[in-house]
């Protein structure tokens, strides 16, 4: 059975966690990418609109994909997504000039505490109580390995730390988050598209929400960025340097596997969609990306 066939069949049966009528384990994996996450956020919201969040057994998210996953499991993904273009959000979260004051360019503490908890009212308890398990994927800064933060999710505060750690972009997000004795860096360093973790955990089928266009190949970072991040990692987390250096090759391999494996189905950003940088703040662009992501998910569910 193919992935989207399983999604539709579980929806038809009214299947819920703990009472499945099939032998499969279905996971949702959400790619990271900073502001590009508006695309996968739209895809996740379309799943919510159709009442499909409970057809999954586990949800894996890397970086911003972990935050989207948390909103989906809270039951209010569409509400949370609206804060992408809320006028007070992005200019206060992404602040390029903050580097001149030695402050984080990407203020994840403000995003989690002020935007999501106080303004948007993200129900962290509902996420933790959901029988569909959340797996925020981070990078272990001292081992240079993928780290699934599910075992560290004990309460709302540890969930907030896990989400910040999963999205902790090297150099841009400030000091490294520590959780359960582990120092954390962005999950995108080691697993930007977290379907591998799902497969290692025994998933038989994985639906993958992407933040890149179908015609957008993996690219090497600009030289200035490469030098800056390499210097930061060499000083702060040298074990992660191999992961940083091999990211383009691993992303290319991911693309190849996702195109060919029958138990993996990816929903891609449509060809010709506008390019959204990971630090984009334009509310019109972000809203457009969200709408295109929702449309891509709707088309995938209809056409498959």
UniProtKB/TrEMBL annotation:
Superkingdom to which the source organism belongs: Bacteria
Motif GXGXXG mapped to chain: 32-37
Say yes or no: keyword Hydrolase present: yes
Task: Note whether Flavoprotein occurs among the keywords.
Answer: no
Residue ranges of the motif GXSXG: 61-65
Q: What Gene3D superfamilies would the database entry show? A: Cytosolic phospholipase A2 catalytic domain
Give the PNPLA domain ranges: 28-199
Q: Please give the CDD domains that the UniProt record associates with this protein.
A: Pat_hypo_Ecoli_yjju_like
Q: Sorted alphabetically, which Pfam families does this protein's record hold?
A: Patatin
User: Which keywords does UniProt give here?
Assistant: Hydrolase, Lipid degradation, Lipid metabolism
Q: Give any GO molecular function from the UniProt entry.
A: hydrolase activity
Report the SUPFAM superfamilies cross-referenced here.
FabD/lysophospholipase-like
Q: Which residues of this protein are catalytic? A: 63 (nucleophile), 186 (proton acceptor)
InterPro entries from the xrefs? Acyl_Trfase/lysoPLipase (IPR016035), NTE (IPR050301), PNPLA_dom (IPR002641), YjjU-like (IPR037483)
Motif DGA/G residues? 186-188
Any one Gene Ontology BP term: lipid catabolic process
Annotated protein name in UniProt: Patatin family protein
């Amino acid at each position: 059975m193919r992935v989207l066939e399983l999604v539709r069949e579980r929806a038809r049966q009214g299947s819920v966690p703990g009472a499945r009528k099939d032998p499969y384990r279905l996971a949702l994996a959400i790619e990271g990418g900073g502001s590009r996450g508006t695309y996968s956020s739209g895809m996740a919201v379309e799943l919510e609109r159709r009442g499909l969040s409970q057809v999954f057994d586990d949800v894996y998210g890397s970086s911003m994909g972990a935050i989207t996953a948390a909103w989906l499991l809270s039951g209010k993904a569409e509400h949370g997504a609206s804060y992408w273009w809320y006028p007070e959000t992005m200019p206060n979260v992404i602040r390029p000039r903050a580097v001149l004051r030695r402050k984080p360019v990407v203020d994840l503490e403000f995003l989690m505490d002020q935007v999501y908890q106080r303004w948007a009212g993200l129900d962290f308890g509902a996420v933790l109580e959901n029988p569909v398990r959340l797996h925020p994927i981070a990078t272990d800064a001292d081992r240079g390995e993928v780290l699934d933060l599910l075992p560290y999710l004990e309460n709302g505060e540890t969930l907030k730390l896990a989400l910040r750690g999963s999205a902790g972009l090297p150099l841009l997000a400030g000091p490294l988050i520590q959780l359960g004795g582990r120092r954390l860096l962005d999950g995108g360093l080691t697993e930007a598209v977290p379907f591998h973790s799902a497969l290692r955990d025994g998933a038989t089928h994985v639906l993958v929400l992407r933040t890149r266009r179908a015609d957008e190949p993996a690219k090497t970072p600009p030289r200035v960025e490469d030098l800056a991040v390499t210097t930061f990692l060499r000083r702060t987390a040298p074990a992660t340097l191999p992961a940083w250096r091999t990211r383009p090759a691993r992303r290319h391999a991911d693309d190849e596997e996702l195109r060919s494996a029958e138990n993996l189905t990816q929903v891609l950003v449509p060809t010709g969609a506008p390019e959204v940088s990971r630090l984009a703040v334009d509310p019109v662009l972000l809203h457009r990306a969200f709408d295109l992501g929702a449309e891509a998910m709707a088309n995938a569910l209809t056409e498959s």
